[in-house]
Amino acid sequence: MPTYAKDNFALTSEALRAAWQPGCKLLVLNLPCNPTGGTCNRAQIEAIAKFAVEKDLLVLSDEIYSELTFEGEHVSIAGLPGMKERVIFLHGFSKAFAMTGWRIGYACGPAALIEAMMKVHQYSMMCASIISQEGAIEALQRGEDAMKAMRDQYHRRRDFIVRRFNEIGLKCHLPRGSFYAFPSVAVSGMSENEFAVGLLQAERVAMVPGTAFGANGAGFCRACFATSYEQLIEAGNRIERYVQSLAKKR
Which one of 84, 135, 141, 221 is least enclosed by Cβ atoms within 10 Å? Predict the structure, then answer.
């Protein structure tokens, strides 16, 4: 389903209703979202939950970025009335606890669905490694303060890089979650792919063309701000220099 910058890339129940077709059985949610950082507020999630009940949909809810929500509260669809029996909740440790590479996560859902999932899982992967399990327990028991400190730093980085994009002329909404910004590169007169490749070649700054994530990413690039503040300052300066060089050529 398409989402739009005018809605801060939030999924709306109206878009969901327009996309629904007879025979649909499963709704996949990823909130906050990669690549846009878009998410939904309580009213939007409640409307989506109501629609899922109306159409008798299962919901696969990937909430891996939930702790990295900067404004307002993260509302899980799994906790809303009537959803417990139809939601499979997915989470892990790679984002909020910086455990990328540990390859550990979990699924919660109705017993019958989890049991069916296990029939596939147990023959494709015996279990997560003991080291990863121990690390996950440590994160859950003693990692919350460090996670909140890291979230505050991501918040600071988000505010900086979004401000810089807008100063440069690359219009960018303020993502409510994750560690991605999704600026428009339309002002350059180039496609998102041309802009990303040109920036990489000219200034050694890497962004991902928005169309790598779907057709609605046309005209946008994804920028990850999960790096040091100093590197973000340098990246902003290089991007500005690149955009100015394009303006001089026109």
Answer: 141
